[in-house]
């Protein structure tokens, strides 16, 4: 069972003259009183008694007292803790007869339970590290956090590059009429020369047909004048007629190719190539933009997977409170980061984490609860009772919510009790020690 404080008696520590308190086993015990009456001295005394020399006040003995401090605490496991004498020597009495001393106390007492403000005032990342440490997922979450950070930075770069590529593509001119590839001047000239060569062959054939026609005429004249050679020339004429007919048929089928388009392309090659290059740049930019967008989407999926793993890891962990988690390296409770939590929720989170740090420690000390209104105090107290936790707290108040009132270094009853004559109270309290 978790260790709690059943009873405490304090004398001559800081502002305290004589105080006796029997805290509630579960829930909130409020030590009330006006300013500078000794409320905080009660908490400092408990911390000193249980936490050791590191918590000893710099001026432990009450000013003006010749009697040294005297602290006497009875714990729920029967352990008796005392500090008394000139040197305020620690004495721990274990009813089971086991080892005693500060080492034994350290096994039961969580340091942050004695100094809750140290946790509450730490940075958001330090609070988160404390939580992750006690639930045993700190190393795993660190790896996932680093993976998420690297993926996020990579995705950020890819997203920016995709936007730049897309903007660049939109700004580029585009010429639908331009060819897909760059034009080579030498290729165009070569094509032109081939066409001219073919046209030259055609011209030779035309010239041949004309020559044959002239030959036919010459031979016809010879037929007229040289009838004796008629038969011979008739045979030649017949053959020439045939050759001529074939030649003219071939000529009719010929068609010269125009070089005008190539000549225009050669003349405008720089302008055409400028348009081709512009189209290629635009196509490349659009392709790059698409690729970077696809990469961005893939990285987004990876980030979501990592965040899902982190969520699953925390959901599977034994957290001190429902709805308590770690996001982006900070504590989050009910969806709120520390600075947006209510005072009551901050105390719940802090107390729950302290309890988780050392389940053997069932109490916590809280100073300055005057920041809470009565409804919030009641809500916090009910939560403590439900959790089986003991909290000893101070509050600048003498109202009914106070379990005990400190006045001029003495405990004078609760806020609900009618106060006795101060002189009688002091006399009674002084005689109790």
UniProtKB/TrEMBL annotation:
Q: Which SUPFAM superfamilies match?
A: P-loop containing nucleoside triphosphate hydrolases
User: Which species is the source of this protein?
Assistant: Mediterraneibacter butyricigenes
This protein is called: Rad50/SbcC-type AAA domain-containing protein
Q: Report which superkingdom the organism of origin falls in.
A: Bacteria
A single MF term (Gene Ontology): ATP hydrolysis activity
Has the keyword Phosphoprotein been applied to this entry? no
InterPro entries named in the record: P-loop_NTPase, Rad50/SbcC_AAA
User: An example of a Gene Ontology BP annotation on this entry?
Assistant: double-strand break repair
Q: Where does this protein have coiled-coil stretches?
A: 202-316
Instruction: Tell me which UniProt keywords the record has, alphabetically.
Output: Coiled coil
Q: Which Pfam families match?
A: AAA_23 (PF13476)
């Amino acid at each position: 069972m978790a260790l709690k404080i059943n009873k405490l008696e304090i004398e001559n520590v800081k502002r305290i003259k004589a105080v006796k308190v029997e805290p509630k086993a579960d829930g909130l015990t409020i030590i009330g009183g006006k300013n500078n009456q000794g409320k905080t001295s009660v908490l400092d005394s408990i911390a000193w008694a249980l936490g050791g020399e590191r918590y000893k006040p710099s001026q432990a003995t009450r000013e003006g007292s010749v009697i040294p401090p005297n602290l006497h605490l009875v714990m729920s496991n029967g352990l008796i803790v005392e500090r008394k004498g000139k040197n305020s020597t620690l004495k721990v009495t274990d009813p089971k007869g086991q080892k005693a001393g500060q080492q034994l106390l350290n096994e039961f007492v969580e340091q942050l339970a004695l100094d809750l403000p140290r946790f509450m005032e730490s940075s958001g990342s330090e609070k988160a590290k404390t939580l992750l440490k006690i639930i045993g997922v700190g190393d795993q979450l660190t790896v996932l956090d680093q993976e998420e950070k690297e993926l996020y930075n990579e995705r950020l770069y890819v997203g920016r590059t995709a936007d730049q590529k897309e903007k660049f593509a939109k700004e580029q001119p585009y010429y639908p009429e331009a060819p897909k590839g760059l034009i080579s001047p030498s290729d165009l000239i070569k094509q032109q020369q081939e066409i001219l060569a073919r046209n030259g062959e055609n011209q030779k054939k035309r010239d041949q047909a004309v020559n044959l026609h002239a030959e036919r005429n010459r031979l016809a004249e010879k037929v007229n004048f040289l009838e004796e050679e008629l038969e011979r020339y008739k045979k030649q004429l017949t053959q020439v007629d045939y050759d001529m007919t074939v030649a003219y048929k071939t000529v009719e089928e010929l068609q010269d190719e125009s070089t005008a388009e190539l000549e225009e392309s050669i003349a405008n090659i720089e302008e055409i190539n400028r348009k081709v290059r512009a189209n290629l740049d635009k196509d490349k930019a659009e392709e790059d933009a698409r690729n970077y967008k696809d990469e961005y989407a893939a990285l987004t999926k990876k980030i979501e997977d990592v965040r899902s793993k982190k969520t699953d890891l925390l959901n599977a962990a034994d957290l001190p409170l429902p709805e308590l988690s770690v996001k982006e390296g900070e504590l989050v409770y009910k969806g709120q980061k520390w600075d947006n939590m209510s005072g009551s929720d901050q105390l719940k989170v802090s107390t729950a984490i302290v309890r988780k740090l050392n389940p053997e420690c069932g109490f916590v000390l809280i100073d300055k609860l005057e920041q809470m209104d009565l409804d919030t105090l009641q809500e916090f107290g009910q939560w403590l009772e439900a959790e089986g936790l003991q909290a000893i707290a101070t509050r600048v108040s003498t109202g009914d919510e106070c379990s005990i009132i400190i006045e001029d270094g003495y405990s004078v009853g609760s806020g609900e009790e009618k106060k006795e004559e101060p002189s009688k109270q002091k006399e009674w309290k002084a005689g109790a020690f």
